[in-house]
Each structure stands twice: as structure tokens, then as C-alpha cells.
Amino acid sequence: MTEVIKTDVLIIGAGPCGLFAVFELGLLDMKAHVIDILDKIGGQCAELYPEKPIYDIPGIPYITGQGICDALLAQIKPFATTFHLQEMAETIERIGDPLFRVKTDRGNVFEVKVIVIAAGGGSFQPKRPPIPNIEVYESTSVFYSVRQMEAFRDKRVVIVGGGDSALDWTINLAPLAQHLTLLHRRSEFRAAPGSVNKMMALVGEGKIDFVLGQVSAIEGEGGQIGKAIVKRNDGSHFEIACDALLPFFGLTMKLGPVANWGMDMKDGEYVLVDTATFESSVPGIFAIGDINWYPGKLKLILSGFHEGALMAQKAYHYVYPGKRLVFQYTTSSTSLQKKLGVAART
Amino acid sequence: MPKITYIDSEGHTRTVEGEVGATVMETAIKNAIPGIEAECGGACACATCHVYVEESWRSVVGDPSPMEEDMLDFGYDVKPSSRLSCQIKITAELDGLVVQTPERQA
Q1: Which residues of chain A neighbour B77 with C-beta distances below 8 Å?
Q2: pTM here?
Q3: What is this model's ipTM?
Q4: Is B49 at the interface with chain A, CB within 8 A?
Q5: Theoretical Cys-Cys bridge with A208: which of A180, A215, A267, B106, CB 3.0 to 4.6 Å?
Q6: CA nearest B105 in A: which residue?
Q7: Is A126 part of the contact surface with chain B (CB cutoff 8 Å)?
Q8: pLDDT digits (tens, 9 = 90+) for A225-265
Q9: Does B69 touch chain A (CB under 8 A)?
């Protein structure tokens, strides 16, 4: 039996807006857990452009994607937030007024009074390579992740890609597989040099094959792949017999389960919100950052921060019904400063 | 202003005026050219503004940087003429540039 995690607020998405929401909620005494499908905190900023510059954060002339995440993490440190990474919220059920039960793809259950969707472009999911009919083979003989290495013992495995995932699994599965072929469109890799060296050593010892090219088609029966048709860079084709294909083409953003949570949407892509509170059409479920829409919406981090601040004001009334909320400044309020763990400067 | 021509996978041709200093991706988005998604907004962090540079223009446009090559690994049907259009800055020399958009973005 899974233990139910009970808290005030569940924030879906650990990007900059989700992180700043922790801060705004925390100032108002609301505790939050944060869930994110990535294996790291920071959302797109950490996944897509950790080293890239951002020039439009108010008061910060220049910061990198990772830099803003690190700064936000430092800012929310006083609130000792629990993060649940590599986990996706799947279903939301209303069980009280307001009380929600959220189930995740890992089987965890949350019971919260408020849900804040800060999911950006949706959830990051493995990119499906452009191979005709590949979906027929998925999770039978085509896999985008490895859950159990044993499943590949004595199999003929083809791994596609040139990044860390492709190389790590090449190295890990090589001793188990009957035969392993790594396929990449060029001879340079964007993986850790140590992994590249290990892989090259395996090739040198004749333990695996490395082939230059791209998979153009797969053939098989009943979901079981039999061979991959590979296109070389000169346009010619050849075949590799295999039992399993593991493509590692990075991540793409998909809206995912958000669309099924009963909220009014804009073009089926964005959660419609009220600009006074950033609440969706479902009372108690809020949406901030890139995932929401309202007239005048700009997909800017600074807009998401503003949205988080207003969200917290309304969320307070769900978490503390009937309690009066006094607006305070961190500059002058001793009670806010106490929560932040900073001494009042007089 | 330099003219840029985009040919989609079905052969439809669209020619628009680009600004010197803007990228081929930005110019496409500004002019609502279909076939270019630019999911990451031009940070060379996805591969959804992938184009094929017309053979005669390849030497003028040049080759992708190592970072761009890394991102191209995620592209759909990558060819030797593949580039990410967010990494092609328009110059006066590129007046008349022709790029093709792939059948789909990654």
C-alpha cells in the first residue's frame, strides 16, 4: 500500500516558475511538494539551455539558464521543499472541497488542497525517431529507456544515437547482449569523453560493432522487430538483424496528461486562466508560466513570476479558509523575514 | 533586403525578405513559413528548425559548428546539407539563399 503524501500544495513542474511559486507560497505559510518528469531541477532552463544567456530577468542583466535555477533554489532554501524527480502526475481526482488526489506514473499518491501546474511546454518525453510504423514495435522490441538490463540478455541489440544515453547503454549492455551494434550518423559523439573511449575500446576488442548511418525502416512481425534497414551517409542501404532497437534521440515536450484534467483549454494546448488569480476553470487548480493562456499572455519567465505571486494570494484561501491575509513586504515584515531565516535589519 | 526562399517538402516555394543580422529561422517564423517549429526559440537547443541548404549555397552558408552538429543528431532525416536555421545569420552575401524544409521536424 502506497503511503499518501499529504501537503498543502502540489506544484507540477520544477522550472523557474514552479520554483518561484514555492517561494511565494512559502511566504504565506503554504508547504509545497514539487514533481517533475526530468531527472533534474530547472525544467527547460536546465534541460534545453543551461549554458545559454537570459537577458530579461528584471534586475539581473545577464544570467544563464542554469544560473537562474541555482539562484531560485538558493532563494527557496528556507522552505525545505521536497522534490519528486523523474515522476509525472497522471491523474487528478477531486475528493473534497477543495482537496485533490493526484496519482503519478510511479504509483505515488498526493493529497493536496491546491494544485499549481507550472509545466511549461508540457512534459519532456523521449523523441520518437522518424521511422515508419515504429509505434507498432514500441515497448515490445523498441525501447526509449532501459528499465531492466536483463531483458536484453542474449539479444541482438541495436542502439541508435551519439549522446550520453546511447553510449552509457552501449557500454552497460555490451556484456549481456548476444550482439550489440551502435549506430550513429557521424563519428563524433556528444557524450562524456570517458564513455566514448570505453565504447571505442569495445569496438577495438571486437565486442561490439559501430556503424555510421541512420535507421530508415524496421521490419518484423507482431511487434517483434527482425531487422533494421540502415541508410549510410552516401545514400546506400544495408540491414542489421536484431531483436531489440533502442533509439536515444533526446527529449521533446508534449502536453501529456494535463489535457485530461478537466480544465478549459485554449486551442487544446494551454490552460485558460483568470488573470486576477491564475486559477483555471477548476477551482483549486492553478496554472502559471508557459503552460497557461490569457489575453496578452507572453511566454516570459518574468510573467510566470508575477503569475506565481498572484496565484499564492488566492491559494491561501483554499489552504487557510476564513483566515485573513495581510499583505506584507519582505523588506519590512519581521514575520516574513523570520520565515526566510534572515535577521531583521534595522 | 536579402531575399530568402523556403521550399517545403511538397515543393511549394515561398520567398520573403530577410533582415541582415536576423537568422533564417527568425525570418521564417516572422513570415509564418510552415515547416519550421523552433521549439527552443533559437538557442540551438533543439533540432526543430532544421533545413537543407540548396547545394549551390552550401559553400556560402558554411558548415555547422560542432555544437550545431551535436543538435543535428536529433534531427529528422539529416543530410550533408543539413543546418539548423537558427544558426544561419543573414548577410548581404546570402541574398537569394534557398533552403528546403524537411518533411517534418524532429
Answers
A1: 130, 214
A2: 0.81
A3: 0.75
A4: no
A5: A180
A6: A130
A7: no
A8: 999 999 987 889 999 999 999 999 888 888 889 999 999 99
A9: yes
